[in-house]
Amino acid sequence: MIGDRARRIEDPVLLRGAGRFAADTVRSGELHMRVVRSPVAHGRIVKVDVSQALLLDGVVTAWTFDDIAELPAIGFRLTPRPELIPYRQPVLARREVRYVGEPVAVVFATSAYLAEDGAELVDVEIEPGQAHLQADTEPIPWIDAEQATWASNTGDQVAAQDSEATTFVEEYGDIDAAFAKADRLVKKGTHRVFTTEARIGRHTAVPMECRGLVASYDESDQLLVVDGAAKVPFWNREAIAAMVGLPPHRVVVRETHVGGGFGPRGELYPEDVLVTVAAMRLRRPIKWIEDRQEHLVATNHSRGQHHRIQALVRVEDGFIEAMDAEFFLDQGAYVRTHGATVASLTASMLPGPYVIPHFRARARVRLTHKTPAGTYRSPGRYEGTFARERLVDTIARELGLDPATVRRTNFIPADKMPFERPIQAMGTHLVHDSGDYALLLDKVSERFDFPGIRAEVEGRRAQGELVGFGFGYFVEKSGIGPFEGARVAVDGAGQVTISCGASSVGQGVDTVLAQVVADGLQISHEPIRVVRGRTDLFEYGRGAFATRLAVMAGSAAAIATEALAEKARRVAAHEFKVSFEEVELVEGGVEVRENRAQRLTLGEIAQLLEPMNAAAMKEEPGFSADGWFRTDHMTYPYGLHAAVVSIDRETGHLAIERFIVGYDVGRALNPTLVEGQITGGVAQGIGGAVYEEFLYSEDGTPLCTTFMDYLIPTVREMPDVEILLTEDAPSPLNPLGVKGAGEGGTTAVAAAIGSAVDDALRIPGAITSVPIRPLLLRRLVDQVSIP
Amino acid sequence: MKPSPFEYHRPESLEEALGMLARDPDESKVLAGGQSLVPMMNFRLASPTRLIDINRVPDLEGMSVSGDRLRVAARTRHIDVQRNELPGPLGELLREAAGHVGHLPIRTRGTFGGSIAHCDAASEWCQVAALLDAEMTVVSASRGERTIQAADFFQSIFTTSLELDEILVAVTLPVLGETWVTGIAEFARRAGDFGIVTATTALNIVEGVVAEARISLGGVHEIPFRSEAAETVLAGQAFTPELVVAAAEAAADEVDPPSDVHGDADYRRDLVRALLPRAVRSGMGAT
Ligand SMILES: Cc1cc2nc3c(=O)[nH]c(=O)nc-3n(C[C@H](O)[C@H](O)[C@H](O)COP(=O)(O)OP(=O)(O)OC[C@H]3O[C@@H](n4cnc5c(N)ncnc54)[C@H](O)[C@@H]3O)c2cc1C
After folding, report:
1. Which residues lie closer than 8 Å to A477 by C-beta, 6 or more apart?
2. Total domains, chain A
3. Which amino acids bring their CB within 6 angstroms of ligand 1?
4. Residue B287 reports pLDDT greater than 60
5. Is residue A750, in this structure, part of any structural domain at all?
6. Relative to the CA of B195, which of A311, A548, A617, A698 has its CA 20 to 30 Å away?
């Protein structure tokens, strides 16, 4: 069962169109919320007048900042560095607007149409200021002391702040000493210093379902019920409770179906606070469904980074002695719930699969007048992997070495696992738990015949085509703790329910949990019911992010199942008056080994555990067991992406002809779902590498606010993704040996395509930024000297 | 992305439709396939207060040949143009061009006349209309029917010489003889997007000599651009691949394209150089 290509138990409902997404929750008497957004990137609010909107039939009320002035700025969920606190976002713009799309007012009406009509009548007057759009130029004054003090909300005075929200260093070894020797080594000819730059365009996730939330206060139950949550319902319950002034047990947050998460979806945004506060104040159900145009300016952006790397490299074999990196992260206008997560992950994961004895990364998180940024699938790794792998390619080409050999030279050797890097990642010690990086490279190059691909590329080049092959290597991280729990219960009919704190953003977590439990109980996974994403039905859950659920919830479910199986055997032993050792669990029942006719099904065992009988057996009533899994470390899956590309000389069109992924997931609980994750991840990686970028005019007006100008790859642009899954390095950190599969499809896409394009053009280091547009390729083609 | 309030009317005849339009032309809009108008209303870029849905009006759909002209009724769906069985170079051009219009769901709803009336410079049908000097048949309640030449019809971006009280009922195109070679080549970042640049070509090649040349370019000007420079290079010359390249050069020099997020002016000129010969080649059965 574990490891089977089992069918998704989620799909019968979804395929029949019976799913319940945020907008499918309809409550009688509901009001629709529409947000009035700033049309300018930066300016002083002169006036926000809602009086005309209030005159419209159907508009119930409308608020500006003054109406919600008592609400604090939105807090951090992750990586809450204290210096970031003054940069937090108010629920509605306060005195100033800082990006196009910033909420300045909100209208509540009896229909979504009337709400939008009302929103159009809100008179917003803003005195425009200069828009600051570059994160890699010198910081400028950003917020005054009054705003900083207000946003900090500690009662203490806080000084004015500039646009560098934070800068910090992750380092190990002795980088200064290493570079102090550099001059001498370079003169001697044994070493060279390489300096590279890499830019990753600002883009983000565009889940098929935009954000949305429906909240209503149930007077009879004395409960605020919030539907349509995603990703982190438990954390959001605490945050919402604090914002609306209720104790957490009076707030129920429920995840319905979720049409894709990928990082941005499910975080606590201004809109979520407004919906829940309005439900309390107006005592009517409040519904907000984000539209696509809003999504593209209001939901977290991501990725915009500029890296500079200096590396001291041994000439003989390309060994990287030292890497000194600095990067600028374009945070946008505020620091949202992710705090410094992206910067922190970028810095700590930058060394990737390589030893690199001396390392330093300086992060600079800078504010700009753009939509605030947060995490997006493979945050920090997509960016860092592009920067690092571009460097490694440059080293190989400049030193005339084979790019695969240079990587092998630098890999952490398998016999050094677990390998500790003395730095932190997401607040944990970074320990590569297991891995054989060279083995995966061997296996992938054998399975897909890299030498054959190279030969074919050469042959086509000889015919005058611009074709290239390249790859990138990466290490991912997954399974962040600290805890996840699961309860497995069997009823008198023998039916199994798993309850847990996991969330599903559509990735198939129900199926995988059902498989784990079915495996332990030797039953079919299909009838199992999975209850998750509901704060009223489980006690704790950290959420669906950071590729953590297969590891965390999967392990908890395995532990719970084991406890349940033990209880089943105790009951059966008692019933048949034999010892515990004499019974075993076989296909959904417990049998006496020596006399198989003596068998109790799980349903019969549940019946025996009704309270009176259970007491006689000295068992707790009810047939259920809890399992909790705790870990202090993450697991580190790894992989390789390779691409064959061709370039049309005349138009600059880039065709991704082949895309290959090798990925070691430790143990694939369901290979089909792992492959699905990888394929979808590759599509998003291709988006960032080739198509997607939020561009701005000089005054900070976003130029990409519809799918006409923000291009996501479709099925027509997608190559078949060829995947080799391996299980060579099970994680020693959890009972299943599993590592995560959620992000490794995305991580090295830009790196691989950049490498393949360089190769096609035969201009080493030609690609230093993504997305790679046809316009750029058209210009580069003119520099190609080979006919 | 919800439209402003509007009245919805669904007339059952052309007279009724024209009468409704005449009542308040400034505030009214004709609704055909809705594939351009409805998104614009949802974005509130257009806020007509009266919609006159012509989908129930009889005799507005279908293609027919009469003499040497093909008549495409205004409400003919893109998909039906794509499935036309008209023999010869015109039928071929229409089939090929239709394949570039959006995606299947858009082609099953969007209409030929809607595209022409909408006047997007990148639209395939506007290109074809300009290329072949189409004639637009339009009617109003008060002034009856009139015919407008393509050269007078397309005025500027999203603007035609159609009066506010007029309905486009049909477009006619010349049925091209067998000596004509037609072609289209388009460059878009993704399948189904509007072309960044589109080239449509029609050459009448008689005994190896280009007797007449028509070149229309999309994405380089606010309306479809007939490249006189390229046509001049080609006309009267012996047809060779080099001649086509020279024509493409002339067209690239002649155009003054806009810059936007999809490409700047120089890049669009490069695309003209690339696509014009491809359009010609596609018509000759090669790509
Ligand atoms: C995702 C997407 C991709 C697309 N890609 C392309 C593409 O690649 N190429 C392309 O050419 N188009 C494309 N389109 C647009 C599509 O072809 C539209 O169908 C077309 O532009 C308008 O035709 P319609 O029938 O839908 O007109 P409508 O949207 O109903 O109307 C458009 C305008 O024309 C007016 N109008 C319509 N019919 C008449 C008439 N008979 N008389 C007077 N006025 C009239 C309307 O009042 C309105 O102003 C795309 C659309 C979408 C949504």
Report:
1. A345, A349, A381, A425, A426, A546, A547, A634, A635, A636, A637, A740
2. 4
3. B 29-37, 39, 74, 100-102, 106, 110-111, 113-115, 117-118, 123-125, 162, 167-168, 194
4. no
5. yes
6. A698
